[in-house]
Amino acid sequence: MIKLFKTKHIFIISLTLIAMASCTQDQEISKEVQKSAVDNILLQPWTGPYGGVPAFDQMKVADVKDAMLKGMELNLDEIDAIANNPEPPTFENTIVEMERAGEELDRAMKYYGILSSNQSSPEFRDIQTELAPLFSEFRSKISQNEKLFQRIKAVYDASQTTPLEADQQRVVELIYKEFEMNGAELDKAKKERYAAINKELSSLYTEFSNHVLHDEENYVTYLTKAQLGGLSDGFVKSAAQIATDKGHEGKYAITNTRSSMDPFLTYSTERELRKQVWTNYYSRGDNGDEYDNNALIAEVLRLRRERVELLGYKNYAEWRLQNRMAKTPENAMNLMEAVWPAAIARVAEEVEDMQAVADKNGDDITIEPWDYRFYAEKVRKEKYNLDSDEVKQYLQLANLTDAMHYVAGRLFNYEFTPVPEGSVPVFHEDVNVWEVTDKTTGENIGLWYLDPYAREGKRSGAWATTYRSYSTFDGKKNVLASNNSNFVKPAPGEALLVSWDDATTFFHEFGHALHFFSSNVKYPTLDGGVRDYTEFQSQLLERWLSTDEVINNYLVHNKTGEAMPAALVAKIKKASTFNQGFSTTEYLASAIMDMKLHLADPANIDIDKFERETLAELNMPKELPMRHRTPQFGHVFSGEGYATAYYGYMWADVLTADAAEAFAEAPGGFYDQEMADKLVKYLFAPRNAMEPAEAYRLFMGRDAKIGALMRDRGFPVTGE
What we know:
The chain contains 28 helices and seven strands. The protein has 720 residues and is mainly alpha-helical. Among the domains are: 26-185, Orthogonal Bundle (Neurolysin, domain 3); 219-282, no CATH class. The strands form two sheets. A five-stranded mixed sheet has the order 3-4-5-7-6. Strands 1-2 form a two-stranded antiparallel ribbon.
């Protein structure tokens, strides 16, 4: 999952998926701004080595509000200067100045993102709730600035008859479309309503996120020593440490996060406890209390529909997808519906295999959702003689990190060197930093931050973000990129061992970081991306985990240091399509639900009922849930980053499977130099400087075909 900040003209997307920001109530805000100290550390230019780095060691929650208010004031002053420039509008005096504006706020938002996603606290959440509507007002102040838009439109109109240079033309078109999609051409009354809706939504997004985080922090299952059956020593030691940290010494804590839930459901022999842990996790935001998200989601859907209707669109999906690769909700649904029948058919086969194992073992049960992972693991052992825990012994996080750096060296010519301890400020002692350089020239590319462990106040999941993005229009800037995970921290002295799935996710998020580092764009706007395309690069990088070079050199046993045996490697590759029914169906159910919720009439919608009825219509297998049930679907309801865009992982995976086949067939395989050069040139370096479909055609010489995806998942291929 990729998280971005954008403040150069009209967006701010926070690490919690979105924090759309803005302010119009000048008198009220100006009073607050007077309290803001000019020397607020969150607003100050970054100093120190590597082109300047964030002062993470000096950030305080107490500085947040003043920094945000002052940052917005400064940004609005810059926007007003652009809008009121008496000179005729040009690319340089309008578009370039917009690209340059907002540096102070942009810096402050980086700290805000850390405090929101990596180090949240009740104190910060109160400030976050207070700021959310002000952020929205600020955003509307810019997106609805009539003078500003007329200058943008003048530059855009001129470029349609006298085209600019290719990258400048792309910037102008992206900015113009961005303003148009956000109501710049509405009349005064509609603009006011549009802004009011955004303000209300911003508060709802914050409330949604805080509800989910509350349920993650407060639903913890504590085990006794007699209830540890099936769990590995490493997991038990970690659970004991977490329980001790939470004031329950002598017990073992299963936290309400995926990284804790998933291994427990896979290995625990305590079926009733598996049910309890499963229920806690999939009931986040759906417990019928003050933190329940169902009514909140219904209101979000109503407001989103009303907002796009002001612009003349039938529904939110139609508005959102117009500038994505899919273009229309129908195209996105067609892809998902093409894969869905094969996915649920495979689930039926997987459940049949699991039930057979349960029956043979004398377990008097019918497979339920909290049994799926447990019995799937037994089937894996029986069918492929593959033990996930055995595989895990070769997957040490430190070695996987080295493996990712090796891949980056082979494909991108990068070298990763740990920075001297204390030379770069970090926001937590668990964060490590590497310098990234070009292996040939020694040129500094940037810094890579890694925050690997789960902790209280850190949101669940895995994500990548940037603290500074590459651009050259105003002096060359290097990249500060970060990967964030939620691995359960091992007990002192123990190696952190992860599952194959978690290792794949680790590579995936590193793919986003490489996308940031390889950027070769001039203007900040071009460093963004199209949602159903930007997951492609990271999904493709997952494929290097299973290459021989990585397996033979980095997947070594945590006790003996011996390389993974060839027989075990063969089993892993043979079982590569195992459980694809489960993984494809749980994901697709969420993606289809996202789209259907936004296509449905939101008036009087009952979210719980809609979810149940939609799943029934889809013939959703009862033995597994959606990967993200609606009340906890942060991708879609804690902001708008993935709203009607969760399908994008599948869209991107069509490209991924197709490109992976091309690498596999190349003379040098996945490390073929010609393919690697084209990968960087066409798929990574351009970022959003060209249409994604055109970039892919330049790489492959043709459009992608769905057949590779079906083959990759072991599903029947009925056509390309």
